[in-house]
Design goal:
Its EC number is 3.6.4.6. It is a peripheral membrane protein. This is vesicle-fusing ATPase. With about 450 residues, the chain is α/β, with parallel strands linked by helices. It has three domains: about 70 residues, Methane Monooxygenase Hydroxylase, Chain G, domain 1 (Up-down Bundle); about 170 residues, 3-Layer(aba) Sandwich (Rossmann fold), CATH 3.40.50.300; about 120 residues, Helicase, Ruva Protein, domain 3. The chain has 18 helices and nine strands. Strands 2-3-4-1-5-9 form a six-stranded parallel beta sheet, sandwiched between helices. Strands 7-6-8 form a three-stranded antiparallel beta sheet, with no helix packed on it. Strand 6 and strand 7 form a beta hairpin. The radius of gyration is 26 Å and the shape is globular. The two termini are about 25 Å apart. The structure holds adenosine-5'-triphosphate and magnesium ion (MG). The site of adenosine-5'-triphosphate has 19 residues, from helix 8, helix 14 and helix 16.
Length: about 450
């Protein structure tokens, strides 16, 4: 498995820890900045890292706490600022040249929202390649058609042949919708990629969300060719109901206007949405996603491929036949389920080391120099094995451990402990929606 350099969730924890410290030391401005920043990273982590709903929920509830505190700090700082004669204005004028300051007066809101957006929107390149996504060939083709080709061969898309402006990815949870979007972000490196999750936009501390939507599109037009990826778009644009809040309605209306409104030229701007409850989408919004791609549960070959992908470079003793069999045995598992199975299996050797009561000496490559073979490595074994020495991992010197490699039986054990998360009813509904409104990915 590949390791990411700094995981957003760790970064988030680091930031909020700093925030609480600064908060305690009464450095409220810095604290506020850290809280907000930390929450952004948490939101990112929810989207791309946390796999279980439980983890997501606990992160969410933490975020609410931090946002509450941030809101209080913000109000406090505002009051304080009001009393002091010197404020922001002085700061920004020595940053900008004189001619800029005139249009700053014109539209201070725009500046404010753009900076908020820049913080809230993740623009970094996530480094997921097309090959990292197993299966989903049709979806990949459609996305290439919509994203790569128009930028590379603009002349192909003149006149009546227009690239897609809105693409909706829908399907059961954990089938790689967000993951696919990351691949788009990586591969479409000529385009600016904005990713917002609905929770960013609806977040209460940002308040005036509809202006945010407006500025999001404004920025996307300025930086075109660009892609706006809205994850969990259903939260933003669910069908109109009587009890929806005023602000939710305004966001949606703004969204409709921006995506296809009078006077808004969206050439070069692609809106990519993802949802796992597509039927909750407002029909007007649905219409604006011209192409709707069903991302189904993976088939057996794609599942095998995923086992392969997730194993990565970790040493293992699985044969091609084993991998194929695992693919066959995992009917109904989503990509996310499979990644959990593999992660669990990858932990088995660690557990074996932890639980072992006996070790034996074996020959293997030295830690310092893999070309040199040594005879004094220790590996877990059963008490009855020849040469078994009664000891635990605590007695094993750090450089002498030879851990067992991942085997098919580890995989099967993890498989029996992990059940698929998607139920039949949801699948039926999704399939029905796909039949009515979508194309298969
Ligand atoms: N086709 C795939 N190829 C490789 N990995 C996959 C694939 N589908 C899912 N995964 C794995 O599952 C994880 C979760 O996928 P992802 O977050 O994209 O699901 P999702 O479809 O966006 O789900 P949700 O609807 O709940 O947001 C990914 O990080 C990836 O490791
Ligand atoms: Mg997702």
């Amino acid at each position: 498995m590949k390791m990411k350099e700094v995981q957003p969730v760790n970064k988030a924890i680091e930031l909020v820890t700093k925030a609480t410290e600064e908060d305690k030391n009464k450095n409220y401005e810095e604290a506020l900045r850290c809280y907000e920043h930390g929450v952004e990273y948490f939101l990112h982590a929810i989207k791309y890292e946390a796999t279980s709903d439980k983890a997501k929920d606990s992160i969410r509830s933490k975020c609410v706490q931090y946002l509450d505190r941030a809101e209080k700090l913000k109000q406090y700082l505002k009051k304080k600022e009001g009393k002091k004669p010197v404020k922001e204005g002085g700061k920004s004028s020595d940053k900008n040249s004189d001619d800029k300051s005139s249009d700053e007066d014109e539209d201070p809101d725009k500046k404010k929202f753009q900076s908020q957006l820049q913080e809230g929107i993740v623009m970094e390149s996530p480094n997921v390649k097309w090959e990292d996504v197993a299966g989903l060939d049709k979806a990949k083709d459609s996305l290439k058609e919509a994203v790569i080709l128009p930028v590379k061969f603009p002349h192909l898309f003149t006149g009546k042949r227009k690239p897609w402006k809105g693409i909706l990815l829908f399907g059961p949870p954990g089938t790689g919708k967000s993951f696919l979007a990351k691949a788009v972000a990586t591969e479409a490196n000529n385009s600016t990629f904005f990713t917002v999750s609905s929770s960013n936009l609806v977040s209460k501390w940002l308040g005036e969300s509809e202006k945010l939507v407006k500025n999001l599109f404004l920025m996307a037009r300025e930086h075109k060719p660009s892609i706006i990826f809205i994850d969990e778009v259903d939260a933003l644009c669910s069908s109109r109901s009587d009890n929806e809040s005023e602000s939710a309605r305004r966001i949606k209306t703004e969204f409709l206007v921006q995506m296809q409104g009078v006077g808004n030229d969206n050439e070069g701007v692609l809106v990519l949405g993802a949802t796992n409850i597509p039927w909750a989408l407002d029909s007007a919004i649905r219409r604006r996603f011209e192409k709707r791609i069903y991302i189904p549960l993976p088939e057996a070959p794609a599942r095998s491929h995923m086992f392969d992908l997730h194993l990565g470079t970790t040493p293992h003793s699985l044969t091609d036949k084993d991998i194929k069999e695992l693919g066959m045995r995992t009917e109904g598992y989503s990509g996310a389920d499979i990644s959990i199975v593999v992660r669990d299996a990858l932990m088995q050797p660690v557990r074996k080391v932890q639980n072992a009561t006996h070790f034996r000496r074996v020959r293997g490559p030295s830690r310092d120099n893999p070309d040199v073979m040594v005879d004094d490595l220790l590996t877990p074994c059963s008490p009855g094995a020849p040469g078994a020495i009664e000891m635990t991992w605590i007695d094993v010197p750090g450089d002498k451990l030879l851990e067992p490699i991942v085997s098919m039986s580890d995989m099967l054990m993890s498989l029996s402990n992990t059940k698929p998360t998607i139920n039949d009813d949801d699948l039926k509904r999704l399939q029905a929606f796909a039949d009515d409104f979508g194309v298969e990915g």
